[in-house]
Amino acid sequence: MQSELTEKILAGDVRAAARLMRGIEDDSPGAIDELKNLYAHTGRSYIVGITGAPGVGKSTLLDALITSFRQRKLTIGVVAVDPTSPYSGGALLGDRIRMANHTLDKEVFIRSLASRGWSGGLARATLSFIHVLDAMGKDLILVEAVGSGQGEVDIGRMADTTIVVLSPGAGDEIQMMKAGILEAADIFVINKADKEGAENLRIQLEQVLSLAPHSSYDWKSPILLTAVINRIGIEEVTQAIFDHKQYLISTMKIEQRRKQRAMFELIEVIEHSLRTKINNILKAKDFQDLGEKLAVKQIDPYSAAENMMGTTLSRNQTTHRQRK
Amino acid sequence: MQSELTEKILAGDVRAAARLMRGIEDDSPGAIDELKNLYAHTGRSYIVGITGAPGVGKSTLLDALITSFRQRKLTIGVVAVDPTSPYSGGALLGDRIRMANHTLDKEVFIRSLASRGWSGGLARATLSFIHVLDAMGKDLILVEAVGSGQGEVDIGRMADTTIVVLSPGAGDEIQMMKAGILEAADIFVINKADKEGAENLRIQLEQVLSLAPHSSYDWKSPILLTAVINRIGIEEVTQAIFDHKQYLISTMKIEQRRKQRAMFELIEVIEHSLRTKINNILKAKDFQDLGEKLAVKQIDPYSAAENMMGTTLSRNQTTHRQRK
To answer: Any idea which of A164-168, B159-163, B240-244 has the lowest mean pLDDT?
Structure first.
């Protein structure tokens, strides 16, 4: 059964999409119904992840890539998960005005995900946003996520092509290596290449990559130097994205990636719903009263947990049920 | 309904208790049944937690306290959660032989909890072990748990009296302060007081404590200096435990602590059972097959999660049910 909202989103309606995205952020059960409806209509967009430490220039690169893709008449969706992104309202006014260029372009739909204060479920919400943009018929979906190795959204598991952005002097290369972010990179971009240390960073990165164990995966992640503010190197990044896409398609590795992404999403959905369940239990009014009852041994913690969760933890109760 | 095992444990049977503890470690549903039976018979033991960084001398202090309590004819249960504890088999042979003294004493029942490799549920298992010893009729239960601020078992939430052991030169005082372990202390023990730096550590600790915001809780945690290996200061620690017990009873704060502990256990039980649920789902055979189905959009991740969890995430299904 197709809902009205789903049909509007499939027709590319921006307001309908924004409404569903709000529902996703609010964790509304109605939003899940719509996502179920949409899911069969997804899988056509190509997803590009852009990650890197704060300050390396992810947002400016994103901005430049949008312009580059628009020149090729591709329609674009953007999910900004980075709290420092100007899209998420985290940066200076100057940045925000610059980004506003694209908001006048009907074929560019930009949404940010407020990652601050979320107790979890950020990956699930990001994937849901991607599905909405996908169902809208966007050719390309760009996901910007901060990645400094502190347990942020795992962009490498969501994107078809993952771009890791570094810049000289940011000093977090080693942390990123530790966190396995480098392994996730299909394309490296060393931004601010006009600054001192860019060439050194490239040599260092090449050394690290040459030490990495070779996998069966035979794509050699290119290292591209850009100076995005001066529009240097953008075309090369755009071309590398298309090359990588072509590689994934010709080797049929794209199916494998998408299967892994689907399983990742399933795990995220399960984890998120269990987490929500716990939070609801802890907020429940009778949870406080239970403390009294437990303290005076009127009830035991296992029976109390069973009552709250509506499930059985022990063997006895199952037996009782079977006897009935 | 009282089971045979429960009755044996209530009669103080060591083999029966050991059997249930194995069941707890194996996470068997049968063990939960027994714990439900036992729970009403618990709450008589006094629980003392001993925590501190590895190498400060927790186990030797524990050993000395057991001797001291036995001289007072008190029966003792011990739960060693510390993986470096000789009770858990983590230390030198010499330590293990020394500890073996008490294993010949029928009134001292010592069990270790293997904390290595546990994905979680350690607090729940520790509390369950405490309940078993409590039901056996032990006067005192001593829980030894490593605490270096790395997310170990939160002993302060389980014990009536918490002893934090420090030693000069261990160098982890600041980490413990960060981790809030100092706040949990009812008694401080600076062990190896014959070593250089002990007096300095005491002064430093007093300064930190004087800076801490004063709570309504008007017990002033004493700082005791010991040299356990030379049996110096043990009686003072024993006396401080009795003083603190007397304080908790006379101010009725013991009920408050026990209520908080009961609620902590309830949360742990809920978290642990949800965690187990996730693990079972991920191990399920059909989980791998789902990846294929998801990738080709034969099913959506929300419906797949609902199938695996046997619950409803969306609104639609509830509505359908109501319509029936």
So the answer is: A164-168
Of the listed ranges A283-287, A314-318, B226-230, B286-290, the least confidently predicted one is A314-318
B322 touches chain A (CB under 8 A): no
Distance between CA atoms of B189 and B161, rounded to whole angstroms? 13
Give the whole-angstrom CA distance, residue B137 versus residue B237: 23
How far, in Å, CA of A247 to CA of A234, rounded? 20
**Digit-coded pLDDT (tens) for A156-205:** 889 999 999 999 876 656 555 555 677 789 999 999 999 998 998 898 88
Tell me the residue ranges of DSSP E strands in chain B: 46-52, 76-80, 108-112, 140-146, 161-166, 187-190, 223-225
pLDDT in tens, B247-260: 999 999 999 899 88
ipTM of this model?
0.78
In this complex, which of A267, A295, A309 lies closest to B262 when CB atoms are compared? Answer: A295
For A255, the closest chain B residue by CA position comes to B295
Give the DSSP H or E segment for B264: helix B253-283
Q: What is the pLDDT of residue A292?
A: 83
Distance CA B58, CA B77 (A): 16
Q: Which of residues 258-277 of B touch A (CB under 8 A)?
A: 258-260, 262-263, 265-267, 269-271, 273-274, 277
- Contact check, Cβ <8 Å, A43/B270: no
Separation between Cα atoms, residue B324 and residue B320, nearest integer Å: 7
pLDDT by residue (tens digit) across A40-76? Answer: 999 999 999 999 887 888 889 999 999 999 999 999 9
Instruction: Scan residues 12-31 of A and list those with Cβ closer than 8 Å to B.
Output: 29-30
When pLDDT is cut at 50, 70 and 90, the band that residue B172 belongs to is low
